[in-house]
Structure formats: C-alpha cells, structure tokens
Design a protein that fits this description.
The structure is a single chain. With 348 residues, the chain is of the alpha/beta class. It folds into 2 domains: 203 residues, 3-Layer(aba) Sandwich (Rossmann fold); 76 residues, no CATH class. Helices cover 37% and strands 23% of the residues. It contains 14 helices and 14 strands. The strands form 2 sheets. Strands 1, 2, 3, 4, 5, 6, 7, 8, 9, 12, 13 and 14 form a 12-stranded mixed β-sheet that branches. A two-stranded antiparallel ribbon has the order 10-11. Helix 11 packs across helix 12 and helix 11 packs across helix 13. The chain starts with a helix and ends with a strand. The relative contact order is 0.13.
Amino acid sequence: MDTLQQFGLLCPQCGSALLQEPKNNSAVCSGCRNPYPIERGVLNLLRDETTSTDEHYTLQWSREKGFLQFLKSQAEVKKIIPGGQMGWNDLFEEIRAKGRTNPSPRVSVYDAACGFGGIASELVQDDTAGGIAYLGADIHRSLGDITQEIPQLALCGQLIRWDIGNPLPAAQKFDYVICRAALHHTPDPRRTFASLCKALKVGGRLAITVYRKKGLARETLDDAFRKAIIPMDTREAFAVSRQFAVLGRALQAIQGEVSIEEDLPLFGIKKGSYPVQTLIYNYFLKCFWNPVFGEEYSTLVNYDWYHPPFAYRYEPEEILGWYREEGLEVVKRDGIEAQYYFLGEKKA
C-alpha cells in the first residue's frame, strides 16, 4: 500500500504531493523536490528540527523505557491509567467493529500525538488491519520503536514525525481524529485543537482528553516543582522524578485515614475520610506511586507530569466552548480526578 498517496500526504514547504522513493528510503516533494527521510517506517517531515518537548518524549516513549511492552505484559495497568478509562474503550471498539467489516474506503484514523503506540496497538490488529487506515503523528524521535512492536502497521498505516500544533499536511480528511492526553502539552492548545478539526470529515468524530484543573494548593506546588525541573535535561529530570515516587510510596505505606469534618472549598477538599497519600496526591502534590508500576514506571508517570515544557489544565466549560466554536457537537463527555474526556461530531 502506498500510504503517502492513501492519506494524500503533502510537502510541508510548498503543499505539493509527496512521492515515495523506495530506492532512496525517502519521500520527495513533487513540486519543490524537497526530500524527507523514511527511517524504520517513519516519514520524518520535521527532518532535523528538535525541541525540548521532542527531547522529553524521545526518552519517555523509547524502547529503553518500554512502556508499550509493560502495558501489554501487565493487564491491570490499563485499568489504572487514564487511557484505559472514560470513553476510550467504547470508542476503540466502535472503530475496530467498523474495521472488521473491511469497508471501502477503509475507516480512517488520525492519531495526533500517538506517543508510545498505545492507540495503534488497540486499533491495528490482525482482524482490523484490512479495514482501517491509520495515520499516527508525533514530534518525538522514538516512533520507529512503534513500528517494530506493531508489525501490522505496515499493512494499513503510516507514522509521521510531525508537530500536531500545525495543520496536518494531508489532502485526506479523517473519520476519526484522536488526541489522547497530549493537547495540553502543545504550546497553544486552542490552536492545536483547530488544527485537529481541520483534519476531520463532516460527520467525523474528534476525541480528546485534557488535564483537569486542580485546587489552588496542588496547582501552585506542582507549578513550583515544574519550574525547577523543566530546565533539566531528560536524564537528570527522570532521576529527580524518582523522588516523587519514593515520597508517594512512603505516604501510601501509612496506615489509617485522615478525616475532614467539613468541606474545605479553598483547597477543593470535600468532607470525608482519605488515605494519606490520596489526600496529598489529589489536593497538594502529585507524587505517583503504584506497586503494579514499580519504581521505574511510577517514576515515568511523575516525569510525564513535571518535565514537559507545557502542561495546561482546564475547566470543562472552556473545552465545550472550543467544540461549539469549531462546529462540533459534543456527544459524550466524562471525567476522572486527573482528566476530562470529550467526544464530538462535526456537523458541517
């Protein structure tokens, strides 16, 4: 399958069609003749461009850290992470069900900020690869690890190195556009959201999750630590992030609960009883620890929060406004302590 033509991928410089050149392991613009390398099945539209966001996620989603393999080997992990909650499972089954019918044209999916390949792994399977056309994009340089973990991608999809904050350089519009837990990590999330909407067909569906705004104490303390950690290089930041996991483990080991006898609206705390680590984590400081994750992956979760250059948080009304402004009707919304989920349809 010529995936460049299937998705109508275009040159970011001049907008002309890209042509695959297997002999040179690259794609070449049919207009300005700019070349774009293809390495380990990944079309690199950014070439040598790099940012601190790219550097962060190149480590986080690398084979060295192996989060996709960890997720596959530990079934209970999916129930713990936000990506296994809210509306994601229903949406993925909806897409898989359509893919199993082998429609013509295939069900098209744009996975914006495809990360470690979790969504590709959910959608591209032996019984769906014939009916799904999957395009995954991300800014980091570990995308080639995904193609090695999900060989079926070669049958139905393409990974591209691309900044999702910019409109997707593709002529095709998509049945589904997905941006899971990534919109808030872009420099201008509202602009990124508009770019995602431009990639959607009329009648298509756009699903996102964004970070939920926390109480004053948690927001203030998290930002103070982020300010200190963001300037660090990736290895130093990862090592420092381990301290939050160690603190979380120590707090979780404390037996008994803290009883709050009345609502404390300044802190966002409702009357009730809380385990010590839950109280600290939800209202004062993110210090993730889970024994299933262990030290390495608990550290990874904390690193994911404290080191990315951008980590915006939202109230649901603001995101609902974005959907309205772009002509999308929200058909499902959900939320957990950490994030909000929205699914909308493009009406015109």
